[in-house]
């Protein structure tokens, strides 16, 4: 209630860029009054690891942007090196059972909200985007990336089966053969490779340019009837959405069984440790 009152006040404010930031600030929303486009920024320090709270916040922000009839949604990160490090591995290592369940449900919700989003969506990938980071980038309809970053689904490299929604995203973006190979090999692509295979649409040298490109992409729909555009998008995605709904409960149980497996726990512990060790080495 307070939140919507606050929002309506902000909407009337005459600023060029109005902020609809959520109270927790794990994500922020800025709506450009000139273009009507909302920029949704991931803002969980240090590397936008997707934990329950960030996913919950993301869901609320996506809904807020849709409800406020923005003309489009641009997803980006406040970190200038990392778009998102993917799922927060600490939520999966020695997990709290209820939180682990919630984590996956919230991830499914975010995917669903973006995959079926009424608005045109674009990702300004201003840093590394492994696994869940790649999921957020490839669920959007357009991607632009900064140089010297990496993107991809590295799950199989970690001994993890990529869930079906990773497959849907890749099949929307890449030729089937490339999608299958990169998912089954857990390939991570440099920005330049990503551009070459069509995983990203463009490469630019700054975040500002990335946001401009995303705005231009969304502007290409300016003269298209919004309802027709949205229904055409839904039509293309209907079969995936149907399959997702059919398999959603099974997908959740598979995730829980998978992360609770002793071998998976051992592997996660080693992997988390190696990430921490990397920092220790850098400090030497
Ligand atoms: C139908 C069947 C379905 C079955 C499904 C079953 C299972 C599905 C399994 C779940 C799927 C998971 C998908 C995922 O998203 S898993 C996460 C994968 N992510 C990664 O592998 C990324 C690892 N991180 C990195 O490569 C780098 O950190 C970086 C993102 C490139 C950033 O590098 P840098 O800026 O140099 O930062 P640091 O490496 O120093 O990291 C800072 C800090 O953060 C910790 N950390 C890094 N990544 C994560 C993470 N994903 N989760 C939690 N914590 C992370 C890192 O250890 C450092 O911590 P300290 O400051 O404490 O040292």
Automatic annotation (TrEMBL):
The keyword Signal does not apply. GO terms for cellular component: mitochondrial matrix. It catalyses: (3Z)-octenoyl-CoA = (2E)-octenoyl-CoA; (3Z)-dodecenoyl-CoA = (2E)-dodecenoyl-CoA; (2E)-tetradecenoyl-CoA = (3Z)-tetradecenoyl-CoA; (3Z)-decenoyl-CoA = (2E)-decenoyl-CoA. The keyword Transit peptide applies. One of its GO terms (molecular function) is delta(3)-delta(2)-enoyl-CoA isomerase activity. It comes from the Eukaryota. GO terms for biological process: fatty acid beta-oxidation. It holds the Pfam family ECH_1. Its main location: mitochondrion. Pathway: Lipid metabolism; fatty acid beta-oxidation. Keywords: Acetylation, Fatty acid metabolism, Isomerase, Lipid metabolism, Mitochondrion, Transit peptide. It is found in: Mitochondrion matrix. Key enzyme of fatty acid beta-oxidation. Able to isomerize both 3-cis (3Z) and 3-trans (3E) double bonds into the 2-trans (2E) form in a range of enoyl-CoA species, with a preference for (3Z)-enoyl-CoAs over (3E)-enoyl-CoAs. The catalytic efficiency of this enzyme is not affected by the fatty acyl chain length. Homotrimer. This is Enoyl-CoA delta isomerase 1, mitochondrial.
